[in-house]
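Database export, one record per block. Field names are fixed; values are copied verbatim from the stored entry.
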Amino acid sequence: MDKKPYVPAPERPDPASLHGTDGLSSKDRLLRKICDYGIMALLVWTPLPIASVQPWSVLVMEIGVFALWGICLCMDQKPRPGSKLKEEMRRLQPIFIGLFLFLGFQMLPLPAFLVRLLSPRTAALRDQFVPASAQAKITTFSLLPGATLAATLELAAYVLMAALILKTVTHRAQIRRIMLTLVGVGIFEALYGIFELYRNNPHLLFYRKTFNLDSATGTFVNRNHYAGYLEMVIPLALGLLISRFDLFGEPGTPFRARLARFLNRGLATNIVLGAGLVVMAVALMLSNSRSGVVILVLIFVLILVFTAQAFGHTRMQQGWVRTVIQITALAVIAIGLYVGLEAMIGRFAVDKLLQEGRPRYWGAVMTMIGQFPLFGVGHGAFGSVYSAYDTADMEFALVHAHNDYLETLSELGIVGAGLLGFALGYLLWKAFRTWIARRHPELKGLALGCLVSTAAILIHSLTDFNLQIPANTLVFSVVLALTVKTAYHRKT
């Protein structure tokens, strides 16, 4: 018996749209639009003021996220995620509640003898640098409770942004719009970074550029963080192209039929996505970020590996599948190498690698972790505490560990880092398993881009602190939520 071909089912409407024209009052329609465009506005805004690394721009982001949640709560008929996704979110609620309770515990005034008993090094450092604290009867596990409060509010904004995506995004069109917005910002950052690279008086939009003058950085100060941003956006562009090409459609469909379908889905959009992909890859190469170059290659490797996993061995034997992916990867990488090869060879030079201080930083951070194993030094306190563990002369004080995992472990300890790591790992694992089982070709392509995007930045975080940069962390939280959303979309 012939196998019945798969035909994607039409998207089921939101339950609220089953009454009247769309089942929503004019008030709810307006509030939903404000939420949709508010999310996209935040994604456009955060990279512009030097990646929102200054306190005022972080505050703008936080106010924006909290305001959008307030708008969502004001809806009479709130958007409802699918039952499967809702079930998964309910399972993770205790983990996130536990994480924020732990952060509150770090700031909680406690009897000094208890802190001294459970974390002797916390008391010793206070006695060393703030002698008057030895007489205090009340103290905290966080060495800088004010910094911990600020960092906790910032983390809450990222978590709420992800939750807002999971709550309010109920249609594929919303997923596409958010991804297209991110790709649009990525293309702007790429073009602007290349433009400023060749100016005599380069700027970062509102600020004069004084660092990394030999590298494209867009509106970012640091080339590695610029590369990290592009690493998250490039896979989204690939996912959009793959979904439009119907790569995961019915097996056996001729290449010409898929190409015709691809062209019929909007030639202008296809051209912008394809050209933008190349421009972003070139800009990433011109950033002279060594990790960025490695991740760029890895992105296409992951696309190929995940596609093979989804297709299975038999499907990957179809020559055109491998050819399309390989040609795209080789074209993008070849152009990027041609443009930025000379500078990158200099950046990979052995003598420069040996002169860098990352191994020393990491050794000092490991010592810090060993002395604050359970509760850490306090969320957001790393930059102030690190100087006690590295006395080498440095031109600038080290504010971040150049390794997001080590920095998180030093600030949150095993307890806090374990809760955060479990939540992220659980979400990615469940999303991947659900993605493998999906049959809808468009959602499968979109989710593939999101999966590779999150994998790229998590790998880069082994050698840098991209997830300490607000613009990058906000994109990560949005893409992580989209990964889960596309994997579970309309699952009941």
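Remark 1: Residues 42 and 61 are 7 Å apart (CA to CA).
Remark 2: Strands lie at 110-111, 138-139, 203-204, 207-208.
End of record.
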